[in-house]
């Protein structure tokens, strides 16, 4: 076997050391581009009264063309990649910390249980993964909020600018976000709402991500464990289990926290049309009320697709990176 130069070995060692982060970031780029049009339709359905999914798609395409479905894609490409990378890093570390704590104090180690052949998920494993997910979700909120606000502004900028019977002052502010791009949109948010304006809706965002990410990881790990136990294969060698668990965790998490996300989107949309210092009332969160679930079907479909692609790509990239060890040897 030919010898590998030191300059070639160094990046390989770095990639293997940060295999989780490298795999998460690569998979994020792929999954974000794949599912972004559905995310755009979801946001429009949440914030404006369309007559369903097809009506939103038809009107968006007629008035804005294909570009309308990809407005604001730059922000999530950067933010989702960063957020997922940080989220997975926090999650990986947190689940080991919580599992060790439970082993020492409760006499039950969730990670040891999960790695046993034929084991099924239980309250202990779900609590461990849920707590680690909630920790990751709360941690990434402060990174994600400005990016997601910018994305939302880009997605509905045309609708805000053409809104009928709007206050002239509000209309002027709304027009400043129209077709401005990610950086200029962020500048205008700071201009109208100050530096703190980048964190408009932070409390709702924190609540959504803490609960949602906890449910997300608990569902993924538990469903993957169930499917791999039924199939009798190792989790990382069973692509069908990874694909199905990825799709399921996206569906379940969105179904349970969707009204919180709807209120966040509506509040942020309203706040973008106000200047700094003006009071913007926060809508109440109503579970099981029909208008709080506008776009849920689209969101669940998008989430199933994006997470199925993400986790499949994540496990694939991670497997390929692990295989690099054979070359170094």
Automatic annotation (TrEMBL):
Alphabetically ordered keywords of this record: Membrane, Mitochondrion, Mitochondrion inner membrane, Repeat, Transmembrane, Transmembrane helix, Transport
UniProt KW Transcription regulation keyword: no
Solcar repeat extents: 15-97, 124-226, 237-320
Entry keyword annotation includes Transmembrane helix: yes
Cellular location(s): Mitochondrion membrane
Signal sequence bounds: none
InterPro entries in UniProt: MCP_dom_sf, MCP_transmembrane, Mitochondrial_Carrier
PANTHER family cross-referenced by the UniProt entry: CARRIER PROTEIN, PUTATIVE (AFU_ORTHOLOGUE AFUA_4G06390)-RELATED, MITOCHONDRIAL BASIC AMINO ACIDS TRANSPORTER-RELATED
Similarity remark: Belongs to the mitochondrial carrier (TC 2.A.29) family.
Protein name: Integral membrane ornithine transporter of mitochondria
Species lineage: Eukaryota, Fungi, Dikarya, Ascomycota, Pezizomycotina
